Amino acid sequence: MNFCKLAKLSSVALIMATTANAENVLRWTSQGDALTMDPHSQNESPTIAFNGQIYEALVARDIEMNLVPELAESWTASPDGWTFKLRQGVTFHDGADFTAEDVVFSFNRALEESSDYKEQVKTVSSIEVIDDYTVKLVTAGANPILPNTLTNVYIMDSGWAKANGVEKPQDFAAEEETFSVRNSNGTGPFMLMSRAPEELSVLERNPNWWGDSMYPGNVDRIEYRPIKNAATRVAALLSGEVDFVLDAPLQDLKRIEATEGLTTKTVAQVRSIFFGMDQSVDELRSSNVKGANPFRDIKVREAFNLAIDKDAIQRVVMDGLSFPTGIITPPGVLGNTPELDQQYGFDLDKAKSLMAEAGYADGFEVQLDCPNNRYNNDEKICQAAVAMLAKIGVKVNLDAIPKAQHFPKIQKRISDFYMLGWGVSTLDSHYVFSYLFEGEGSWNGIGYNNARVNEITKLIETETDIPKRTALIDEAWHIIKKEMPYLPIHHQVLGWSMKDNVDVPIAADDHLRPRYVVFK
Amino acid sequence: MSETNKSSSRWQRFLDNDIVYSFFTTPGAIIAASITFIAITAAFAAPIIAPYNPFDPAQISLWDGKLPPAWADGGSPAYLLGTDNQGRDMLSTILYGGRISILVGIAAVFLGMLLGVTLGVISGYFGGLTDTIIMRIADVQLTIPGILVAILINGIGRAALPLELREEFAIYVVIVAIGLTDWPQFARVARGATLVEAEKEYVQAAKLIGLPKFTIILRHILPNTLRPVLVIATIGLALAIIAEATLSFLGQGIPPTTPSLGTLIRVGNEFLFSGLWWITFFPAIALIILVFSVNLLGDWMRDALNPKLR
Amino acid sequence: MFYFIINRLAQALLVMAVVSAISFSLFNFVGDPVNNMVGQDATREQRIEIRQQLGLDDPILVQYQRFMINVAQGDFGLSYRIKQPVSQLILERLPATLELVFASAIIAVFIGIVLGVFTGIRRYSWVSKIIMSVSLIGVSLPTFIIGIGLIYLFAVYLRWLPSSGRAGVIEIGGWKTSLLTIDGWRSIILPAITLSLFQLTMILRLVRAEMLEVMRSDYIKFARARGLTNRAIHFGHALRNTLVPVITIIGLNIGGLIAYSVITETVFQWPGTGLMFIQAVDFVDVPIMAAYLIFVALLFVVINLIVDILYFVVDPRIRRGGS
Amino acid sequence: MSHLLEIKNLSVNFPSRRGQVAAVNQVSISVEKGEVLGLVGESGAGKSTVGNSVINLLEPPGYISGGEIIFDGIRIDQKSNEDMRKIRGAKIGTIFQDPQTSLNPLMTIGKQLSETLIETLKISGSSAREKSIELLESVGIPDPVERLNAYPHQFSGGMRQRVVIALALAGDPDLIIADEPTTALDVSIQKQILDLIKSLCKARNLGVIIVTHDIGVIAEIADRVAVMYNGQLVEQGTVKQVLQKPKHDYTKSLISAVPSGDQKLHRFTVVDYIDGSEEKVTLENVSDHWLSKNKSSETHKTAISVKDLSIEFSIRQALFRKNRIFLKAVDNVSLQIQTGESFGLVGESGSGKSTLARLIAGLYQPKSGEIDIFGHDVLQRNQKAKTSLIRRKMQMIFQDPYSSLNSRMTVEDIISEPIRFHRSTLNSNETSKVVNDLISFVGMPMTALKKYPHEFSGGQRQRISIARALASRPEILICDEPTSALDVSVQANILNLLKDLQEELSLTMLFISHDLPVIRQMCDRVAVMQNGKICEIAKTDTLFDDPQHEYSKHLLGLMPRMDLFRL
How many independent structural domains does chain B possess? Predict the structure, then answer.
């Protein structure tokens, strides 16, 4: 039973952990552990971040979210695909050489039925091996943003995968877990030494890493211990048991900052929070308005927009840690401009008169669906919105539930009024349009359907002329800004907390990149 | 004999009663009863005595959020115990929240008691197959720990309700969830008491008179099983309030728009390390004092109603 | 005796049948699992496909039959979230929960009985009165408040003990234990105290009440009249008779410990089954929820059987059958 | 010469919220070696308190408020707890009333014996074992070696009391205080135990104090007797002297109240000394009263006829029927009771007499057999209305006055309940009049109606029970040991009341008792029961004078012969 072996290994590692003092050990925590060590099995943020310490992709993002070479040293576009020059002299943790064959294997693996990364690589129709260190990803048409989508497609060693019978990612129907769930063999800066899921994972520096001299990081060893309860997580930092907390509650940052020996860092996150108002149905399910859907009236949507005081939310609910916005995609994503980012403002009187004009002077009743375990202060924002909308006579019934029950309501389009947050991993507006605005978009829970926006969404998939493409995106956003189908609140801010003897540069995608971490 | 005389003698007899005497000579019982009484009164009079109505969203101003108590730096005299993260007055919120906690507690205990005593008395009186079935169900339920049952019933209840009714009915779902976990306790006690009482000769005498079974149960057996049931109910009230708080703490209970004390503590707990101690401290103290006094009362009652321990 | 055991076993089977039915019904009541298994980018076709793979579209009875057959073989399926076999996940985390429950039970039972006996014997001493008042506070404090308070005091403020987690884990014969290292002991103290406090006060109060009852009995009076020492009377006669009713309650209370370990494990990030359960509830990971319920019920049933057998050991009246 | 035990002017107080209650007031008694002192009195007389004072085991909050206790020349009432502990067991042994509860149920008797021996005699474990066997042998336990490993529940009541005596003797004491040692036992065993105590007293030259309410026991065993009443010692002297020539009024009435086994009297001698209930009010023209208005139109000669009646209770459950064990509580019983007759049922505990009564009353369903009441088969199912009418004519008086009244109802509610339920009065005015009549009819003041049962003594409660039974206007009254829980003086009152009622209302009476003298006084005919079977049915006088069945003879032989002392 490999579980026993593994556990024995972990105990050895644990004993070592208590003795090794001379090294730079980064002990850190966050809410959720990686679900699996298999790089293609789960497209989930903590899993991607964790595996990114062990595995590498062709391209990566640096701390500022710029695309940088990783296993590929350079790449060039052509009308039928992209050609990548691979880094030479790279070895996997077990000593095997990294070659084009591994890239082909990994992309094919990511395309497998049981992979969770099919979406990212589905535009790749085939892979040509030009030589041992050059591959070409052939696409059906031009794909201007392909490299952007590849940062999470990690490369595995084909030989190791075959030897351990993990040519495919773990399947739902399988009876037993596969070898790659707990074992890993990447090219990355850290090697997995032991792993007890939800308990403790220990990684050690890869002495043969190619990037040793290029990156400033001096961490020798990482000990990761997930802590679900937020207060407990902060307590662990306050008591000095961990060096770094990825996701301390925003409201605790002030206190942490004020504590001697601790410091915090914040950065705007690539995620916007907004409310959706269903305009697809003729009559809202939870409203006392019968025979009509108030949300179809742009006056009502505008009144809602003006009634919600985003500055108050920022100041009181978010403790200043958010950026109120008028567009549901954050700065840094292609399409966001300072002009579009301007919020609609707060004007209670105008909101009331708009409501009266729309024929709802006495307001109406509607249910707000809200997740309670997904976004920063999600439930509290909703609560604040309830109070604010009450002032224009709208009686909002709040249903705050775990995300697992919240999201299906949006996808099944059965929610009248809901909160959602949207992150943009590709840093391109297309990702926003295709999911949230395009008529058939799978997260378009409000039934928004604008012919021009649909058209633009299609056009920018293949448009390679950058200025022209940018103009199209800008046009779509202006239509949206005018029609106000969603109610933008703010862009989220990330706050990382750490001891001040360690410098952990913060990244907008909330991924810890230990290669940048420096012990002073 | 004049009417006043009669009533004074009745009063005299009331004071003469051993339990009443024990009450007035046990300081703990008096304090506990007073606090419980004050808490219940305050909770039910909340709309009258609370400075604000925290359940009316139109009265809340987010800009007043996170203010410390009046006596602390930055506190406002308008908010004696400060405000919570939504700008609600803590004092009013605690009063209203206490009302919900007490309401949920009493209703849940009452439900559990109604169900448990009915089934327990029936089980004990009729015996045989009825008894076996009822008590086996109780055993099965006792097999799964109460808080898990409550989480389960609560989860199923919420899932089964239509979306638009969920928030409105959340409180009833919690009541049912806690009440349904409570009943086996009552059933066991009531059954035990019934078995004892049914064997007593006054019940046989009642049978000989020819009274129907349900008259015997209602008039004779039920009143005599109430003492132990009362004790269980008091202790059950304290446990039910804690259970509600725990459910709410796990995010499974009362929604934060109309918070109970447990919800307040859960929400406030998130602000413990950020220095906003009053958001969790005052509700926690309120909860502890409430539960403590109910427990103290139950404790005294158990001793006082158990003549053997006197 | 034979009849008794058959009766108990039948009862246990009934309990397990009912609990497994409830567990199964979870699959149909709580959330939509598919949503948690796929990323936010998945298409509708992918979702439908997964539903089919999992057999979520089959008739309920077919699903139930499949579930029961699998459960009987110890197969609870794969976790929706982690895609690992649930039985293995539970087995991995069992040692943590069992050690925590064991430590708490020892604290609760040992201190509970000692203090209960003390307050029962010295009913009128002021020390007893203080213990009883404090114990009442113990019953009045919700577990989560105790946990947070202890962390704040001992980990953050005094920095004596770790705030959370399970440290110093060593494996012996397939069992991962934290009870063999100092770090392990340090990390179990706070959660064990938190978990035990409620049960401790319950046991204390129960033992005291039973003790008072027993101390008034004729055989205690007769033992005094025979000139036996107080020690012999209290511990030789009273305590043992007190224990008979206390055993049932302790049995039930250990079940309560398992239930409340859900909360304690969450507060202290104790990597046991309770933490797993709460995480599963958040993610609507139904196979884990269902398996956890069945597992808790099974533990309960086993504990109750042990209690029944303990009765035989302690009480000769049951052992030899009524006359 | 000093006495073995001398109690001088002992007073014991129990403080309560209504002031100090003197449970024992200035009592002085003494005991010599080899002598049995009987301490007799009714409940509440303070006799047990005297015993408990000697061994310093008063129930809190009681305390000795005056006087001296001198044992073997040493004053012991002021000794410390630890010093007293050394005296208890080693110097003074004690026997309590109920052998069922006096032994630790979870410990073998061998363990309990050796523990006591080691503590009091300071001997080793192995010699304690030998001594235990010896002791068990001396109190008449067969197979003592094996029985050492047995638990108390494996002994019968009498055997258990022998074990208790062995335990009391373990420390080789000089004085034994036996507090009601035979009250919980059947007559036949009672005699054996008394004989045992007496013989041990003589053989070991022990001083014995027997605390009892039963004059019969005193007559049987004591050398000297001290009579207590209301905390005070009213008289003491040799047994012969006190029983034959009682000086004090209380003693006189106490002795005269004991029913005689050898002749039937019209009424019992009432203990005048006790100011108990009011005198029964005789209703004028009872035959015209409400009480008499519901007589059956048809008069049957046979009130109760029982044929081949059987019932069994399961005492061990098992999966298969063949493994279950049943107790035949009533086994094939047949009897007939004539209308207006007073029929007695006598037997020891467990003989099935109460079960039989409840079967007849309809509280239990028989396994087989027939019951006819006034010629109507009450077991048949097709005439339910008639059956319930007939059943109503049968009411019962129960043994335990404390559990036979619903403590949550006022006396008025209790008595009026059957009247209101059966709507046997025209209106509420008549109901209250009838209730008033009933309560005075059973000799209680009207003020009793507004009170709750706990405010009354046992005898008064029994009267209320009788009033409740009468409220159904019964023609048959079943009395199940109606006085066995009462003091002897109260017993006489209640029995007289029942006798009067039977006469005035011409009731048929089924009277159940273990007490032969009571049966003799109350009944025309009598049946003797043993192990669920009827051994003998005969006219009362015939049975007492010339019993046929062996068991009847045996029972009669055990009857305390008070007459020895009567002049």
Answer: 1
Is the previous residue joined to D61 through a cis bond, with omega within 30 degrees of 0? Answer: yes
Q: Which neighbouring-strand residues pair with D373?
A: D304, D376
DSSP character at residue C233: I
- Distance between CA atoms of residues D211 and D36, nearest Å: 10
Q: Is the pLDDT of residue D318 over 60?
A: no
Q: What is the CATH number of the domain that holds D193?
A: 3.40.50.300
User: CATH number of the domain at C86-319, out of 1.20.59.10, 1.10.3720.10, 3.20.20.70, 3.40.50.1220?
Assistant: 1.10.3720.10
| Residue the block writes with tokens 């309960």 | C300
CA distance A104 to A106: 5
Supply the pLDDT for residue D275: 46
Residue recorded with tokens 């829970």: A445
Domain ranges of chain C: 86-319
The neighbouring-strand residues paired with A488 are A274
CB contact under 8 A, B60 and A397: no
Q: For the purposes of burial, counting CB atoms within 10 Å of the CB of C15, is it exposed (0-12), middle (13-18) or buried (19 or more)?
A: buried
Residue A51, C-beta contacts closer than 8 angstroms, at least 6 positions apart = A34, A37, A39, A154, A184, A186
Coil vs helix vs strand at D94: strand
Mean pLDDT value across residues C278-299: 80
Q: Inform me whether the pLDDT recorded for C289 exceeds 90.
A: no
Examine residue B46 and state whether it is found in any structural domain, yes or no.
no
Question: Strands, E, within A342-472: which ranges?
Answer: 365-371, 395-401, 417-423
Q: Give the chain B residue whose CA is nearest to the CA of D471.
A: B209
- Regarding predicted confidence, which is higher, B141 or C93? C93
Which DSSP letter does residue B89 get? B
Instruction: Report the C-alpha gap between D374 and B232 in whole angstroms.
Output: 49
Which contiguous run of DSSP H or E holds residue B134?
helix B128-143
Separation CA D388–CA D294 (nearest Å):
15
Q: Do C232 and D119 form a contact (C-beta atoms < 8 A)?
A: yes
The answer to whether residue B195 sits within a structural domain is yes
Residues from chain C that touch D103, judged by Cβ atoms under 8 A, are 219, 222
- One domain, residues D181 and D233: yes
Residue D15 lies inside a defined structural domain of this protein: no
Radius of gyration of chain A (CA): 24
Q: How far apart are CA D415 and CA B173, in angstroms?
A: 47
Sign (positive or negative) of CA dihedral D260, D261, D266, D267: positive
pLDDT, tens digit, for every residue of B74-83?
888 888 888 8
Token pair of C158, please?
Answer: 């005094």
- Exposed (0-12), middle (13-18) or buried (19+): which is D62, by Cβ within 10 Å? middle
pTM: 0.78
Residue of B nearest to D401 (CA): B201
Q: Please, which pLDDT band fits residue A70 given cuts at 50, 70 and 90?
A: very high
Instruction: Give ipTM to 2 decimals.
Output: 0.76
For residue B156, give the nearest of C29, C137, C281 by CB distance. Answer: C29
Nearest-CA distance A333 → chain C (Å): 18
Q: What is the spatial distance between Cα D434 and Cα D293, in angstroms, rounded to a whole number?
A: 12
Domain assignment present for residue B183? The answer is: yes
Give partners of D (≥3 CB pairs < 8 A).
B, C
pLDDT in tens, D158-205: 888 889 999 998 888 999 999 988 887 877 788 888 888 898 888 889
Residues C265, C257: Cα–Cα separation, whole Å: 11
Question: Is residue B38 in a domain?
Answer: no
The answer to whether A308 touches A389, Cβ cutoff 8 Å, is yes
Percent of chain A with pLDDT over 70: 94
Residue A398 contacts B, CB cutoff 8 Å:
yes
Report residue A199 as tokens: 């308990």
CATH classification at residue B247: 1.10.3720.10
CB atoms within 10 A of CB A175: 9
